[in-house]
Amino acid sequence: MNVLVVDDEPAVRFSLVELLEAAGHTVRAVEHGPAALEALAEEPADLVLSDLRMPALDGLALMAEVRARHPATVFVLMTAYGDERTAVAALKEGAYDYLPKPFDNEEVRSLVRRVHEMLALRAENERLRAELADRRGPLIGGSPAMRAIYEIIDRAGPTDAVVLITGESGTGKELVARAIHEASRRRDGRFVALNCGALPPELVESELFGHARGAFTGADRDREGLFEAASGGTLFLDEIGDLALPAQAKLLRALEDRAVRRLGENRTRPVDVRLIAATNRPLERMVQDGTFREDLLYRLRVIQIDIPPLRERREDIVPIAIHFIHELAARHGRRVEDLAPDARRALLAYDWPGNVRELRNAIERAVVLANGPALTAADLPASVTGSAAPLRPAEAALAGLSYRDALARARRDFDRAFLSAALERHGGNITRAAEELGLHRQSLQKLLKKAGL
Questions:
Q1: Which uninterrupted H or E stretch holds 140?
Q2: What residue ranges do the domains of the chain occupy?
Q3: How far is the C-alpha of 268 from the C-alpha of 203, rounded, in Å?
C-alpha cells in the first residue's frame, strides 16, 4: 500500500516509516497537515496515519480535507492519552479507526493489515461491478470494440432494421443476435435460429418457408417454416454465406414482400419477422465470384456489426474467463472462483484461434481438473500453455498484477517518461520545467527524486 504518515514528532515519523517499509509498504512522512495535503495532491495515498494534535491544521481538520479531496483514501487518527473521546467522535465523521499513543509495533501492523484487506475487498467489489457493467445480456467485455457493439445494439435494437453480423467462428455472433432481440420491441416474441450450413441445400427452403402436404417425397403433412414460426419475433440465420443461390432469391423476395410461400402452394402468407443474419465468410468477395447475390447483401447489411476476434481485444479475455469459471463451477459442482496469476498470463498470451468458444472449452476443462479455488496454468490445456505467444513488454509487465498494483506501476513508468521529456525540453532546467508543468520547484524536485531522475 501507499501510506502517508503525518506527525509533528520526528521520532514517531521515523519509527512508523521504518516499521511499515519493512512490511513492504511504500511510505512517505510529513510533519503537518498542509504538507500532507500537498503530498496527496502530488500522489494519492491508500492510507493516511495522522496525529490528532498538530500545529497549523489538526488531525480532524486534515481528515475533513482529505475526505473531500480524496474520498477513496483511508484515514486513521493517532491519539494521545485523554483524546479517546475525540477519536471516537472522529469515527462517526468517517475515520476508519484510531491508534492510541503510545502504540506497539504489532498493534500498528495489525491495523495496517486490516486496512489492506479492506482495500483489497473494495477493489474486488469494484472489479465485479465493472464486469457486470461491461455487458449486454449474455455479452461480456469492456474493450472499445465491445463498447461500440453495445452502442449499436442500444440504437438498432428497438428498430426492425435487418442486421448482418460478421466475425470469425466462435466470436459470439449468435449472442449478439440474442442481445439485439432482447433490446427490441419483439423481446416477448420467439427467437428462432437456423444454421444455414447445417442442412443440405434441398432442405433449406422447406425449413425456411415450410411446405404443403405432398410437395415432395416424405412431405406427409402441411408444415410451417421458420419464417412463420418466428412471426412476431426474430429469425436468426447463421452462416448465411452457405445459402444456395435459389434459396437466396427466395429469401430476398420474402424480405421485400414480408410474405412467404410454402413449397407446393400458390398462395403467399404474410409474416412479421425481424431478420438477423451472420457469417464468417467474405460476402463481398462471394458477390464478385458470383456465389452470393449482391442485391441480397445490400438488403442484409442495413446495419452491420463486425465482431473482432478475441486476440484483438485481449482486455476482454480475463472477464470472460471469470464469467465462465463461475458458470461452469456451479454446473459441475466445483469450488473454483478465480484465476491464479500464471493462468491469467497464459490466457492473455494465447491467440485463441477458436475465440470465445475455445476459451469456454479450455475453462471447462480447467474447472473440472482444478485442485484449488483458483485455476492455475497447469490446469489449462497444453494447446494454450504450450503455444502461447510472448506477451508484448507492456502486457508482460502488468499481467498477473492487481488493478491497484498495475496502476501504480503504469503511473511510475508514466512519471519517469513525462518528467524526462519535460526536463529535456528545458535543457535540464528544473525551474523552467516546473513552471511549464504548473508545479512548485520543490514539488518537481520530489517527483524527480521519486522517479529516480
A1: strand 139-140
A2: 2-131, 138-308, 311-398, 403-450
A3: 19
**54-85: pLDDT as tens digits:** 888 889 999 999 999 999 999 999 987 667 77
Fold annotation for 138-308: Rossmann fold (3.40.50)
Q: State the CB neighbour count (10 A cutoff) for residue 230.
A: 23
pTM for the full model?
0.60
Rounded Cα–Cα distance for residues 182 and 162 (Å) = 15
Question: DSSP character for 389?
Answer: P
Q: What distance in Å separates the CA atoms of residue 227 and residue 257, rounded to the nearest whole number? A: 13
Q: In what order do the strands lie in the sheet with 191-195?
A: 191-195, 234-238, 274-279, 163-166, 303-306
Nine-digit cell at 290? 458470383
Residue 54 sits at φ, ψ, to 5 deg, of: -140, 155
CATH 3.40.50.1980 fits 403-450, yes or no: no
The residue to which cell 410437395 is assigned: 215
Number of Cβ within 10 Å of residue 237's Cβ equals: 24
State the CB neighbour count (10 A cutoff) for residue 346: 24
The CATH number of 2-131 is 3.40.50.2300
CB 356 within 8 A of CB 320: yes
- C-alpha distances in angstroms, 394 versus 9, 234, 400, 413, 451? 42, 43, 12, 10, 18
CA–CA gap between residue 359 and residue 355 (Å, rounded): 6
Say if residues 109 and 19 touch (Cβ distance below 8 Å): yes
pLDDT of residue 126: 67
- Partners of 5 in beta bridges: 29, 49
Considering the domain 311-398, what is its CATH architecture? Orthogonal Bundle (1.10)
319-331: average pLDDT: 92
Task: Check residue 131 and report its DSSP letter.
Answer: H
Same fold, 2-131 and 138-308: yes
Contact between 345 and 399 under an 8 Å Cβ cutoff? The reply is yes
